[in-house]
């Protein structure tokens, strides 16, 4: 696709000919597909759900289905809901650390209930999101994103080496050459395609890397298609599949991440209008994007889906192609919805061996951390800001790595203190407000 920025399709309400619109819509899906389904696989593993089992397959289906539904909230919208911009929604990595911890200790019912309530509160942020932005300058948002990436990196290494949980590390095959050869194949192919190919092929680098690793794993006898054969071709969806279980600590932790997610969505809405039309996003577009973000998260949680957020990588596609049409992204959303209703597709994804997924998330989680560092480049590195970075990261990551250090705290406070993201955000916000600017 050639760059036609601010050209014939700089208006969100215009639609290219279908011969162009369909490939452009699929390009948006390819750029986010791997990142969209990965959080569900990780949280399912943390919850102890069988790898490749029907519950994990269902969670993968819901990730695809409600990424599509949430995207329609953004591109088509109704009332105040939706930016009506080409914003692709997907399952958010920002929530993985918090939800994996909740799912591992309290179960998927508590995790998804927290997502439902957090999504409703996230939706309410749309009414006054503009007035909250001052609490989240680049110093705070950059730190939170960096903490998320750093927290997730050990999980990537565990997956690449062939294990999803600590007890699996004792297995003889953990860390074997076979596992690492598959994981490194994914990394090498993904990077080669990303940096030596062009256009939509380049944007699909991680997906192509995963496919290459999948093929190698199949050749090495690591792929089991038994679940694919048992999966139905089409199925319905189940409200609250893991039940409704309220836990205040879990709700607070998820809601804090929802606030950060809302701020990221505001940034993506602004970046989309700048990239595609050379203008600032309007107040209505920013509020609509936030409403859609929260509604998408709440609706997904009702049926077993994890929280949704805008996908920043898709902003790059808008800038690269210059096609600002929201209807192009609507086509991509419809494709995701179809995939989400076909359990066979979910079962194929769930059959992906852990080292294949590990190779992909080594790149993806590293990129999350790098994105946080990129945001921090906007921050002046004086003594004040360096102290905030040091103390916030130490509090967030340190307590997460040594949870027994706060084992005597009440349940709600302990959940927050060991979630990595919540303490990093809270410490950064408080220090940014109270420390003087002139040190």
UniProtKB/TrEMBL annotation:
Keyword set includes Zinc: no
Locations listed in the record: Cell membrane
Entry's transmembrane regions: 29-51, 57-78, 136-157, 177-197, 204-226, 246-266, 328-350, 356-376, 388-409, 415-435
Keyword vocabulary terms for this entry: Cell membrane, Membrane, Transmembrane, Transmembrane helix, Transport
Highest taxon of source: Bacteria
Assigned protein family: Belongs to the nucleobase:cation symporter-2 (NCS2) (TC 2.A.40) family.
Protein name per UniProt: Xanthine permease XanP
